[in-house]
Amino acid sequence: MRTPTFSRRLLAGTLAAATLLLGACEKNKTKSEQPTVAVNYALSTVGGAFPNQTTYIQGLADLNATTLDTRNAQEQASFAAMWHYKKDLYMSKFSAPATLTKYTFDPATGRPVEAGRLVVPGANTFSDVQFISDTEAYASVGGGLARLVKFNPTTFVTTGEVDLSRLQRRTGIRSTYYLGSMVRDSKLFWAVYFENTSFGALTDSAHVAVIDLTTGRLEKLISDPRTSTVFSSGAISCFSKDANGDIYVQGDGNPRVPSGVLRIKAGETRFDPAYFFDLKAATGKDCKGLYHFGNGLAFTTRIEDPTDSYEFKGPNYRFYKVDLNAKTSGGALPGLPLIYGSQSSLMRKFDEQNLLLSVNTKTENALYQYKLSDGTVSKKMDVPGLLTGLAKLN
Fold first, then answer.
1. Is it the case that residue 25 has pLDDT exceeding 70?
2. 10 three-class SS
3. Beta-bridge mates of residue 173
4. Is this prediction's pTM over 0.85?
């Protein structure tokens, strides 16, 4: 027969064990129920004046705020361009050696966290990035060496290089730039710009390198004399692909040939001789950038003062609506001021009813909204600096 003392000891031991078990459960519960900050959008802005600029990178749950600040942003010295793949960001600033920095987002705070660096000595910046899969991506570098490297976005290590050296065997070349790209099927299309010793265009043609992804080799260089200077990356787009697989390529032009849009039809690797959209003739002046949203609906920015395309005098670009199918202009977007289009003329699809566009002026840095149903434009939010990147993460 158990004694009262033994029973009390058994009860005490049971209570102690239960207390420990309950404590462990509470700790596990607390750990598993830590708040997770949703990050569905990423945005980058630049503050300051050259050369003392800072890029601010931040993740957002939504775009419902009327004003943004930089309190939850990650800083990167200098002007930096932004690319994204799924939930990760990739930033490149202009500073030797060329460095592409990968960022993920801390689930507890929503802040960007550096997750690796890809460095190419001998170059100053990454000029464009194109993602193929979780394990395959390509990036061009410029400002010194002009190379096209292959890397793994997951492990973030260089895995190879596409040899483009034969493109640079031309008389009179000072530098070669690879700015603007598009992938379709097993082909990679990468814009090529040849600069002469006077810092101008070596030729009066548009050039695009065609790379076979199955072999990793340069297949050919295609050229077209109807426009020239395919030379955009980062926030400014010069490549677009429609639902049929047709690729549209925008050239800036020069004093001898107009800015315009070329087409590479689905299944082909040449410029379509039957298609050319003369942007200068349609809008009245040369244009830069191409943002295509299907069924021919597209936008560009017109350069108002042709003597100041780099905007030393101030904002000099204006958003224009164009139709790629009819090859006509729908005119300037209503109610918008001149913007700093040479640095950022960003447009993105927000949802089925709206597009988002950047408006950067001397007195305003903002994200505006274009309503697809009636073409009206309204401000969505003020942002803390020159808007240079906006991505919907998935």
1. no
2. helix
3. 196
4. yes
pLDDT of res. 16? 45
Bridging pattern class, strands 386-392 and 377-382: unpaired
Q: Which two tokens stand for residue 203?
A: 């030729």
Query: How far is the CA of 239 from the CAs of 70, 91, 184, 277, in angstroms?
Result: 31, 20, 12, 14
Residue 15 or 70, more confident: 70
DSSP-derived 3-state class of residue 283: helix
- Report the distance separating Cα 172 and Cα 33, nearest Å: 64
Residues 334 and 320: their CA atoms lie apart, in Å, by 9
Q: Collapsing DSSP states into helix, strand and coil, what is residue 188?
A: strand
- CA dihedral defined by 202, 204, 205, 208, rounded to 10 degrees? 30
Cα separations in angstroms, 344 against 17, 81, 134, 233, 311: 64, 10, 28, 10, 12
Q: 165: helix, coil or strand? A: helix
Residue 19: count of CB within 10 angstroms of its CB:
10
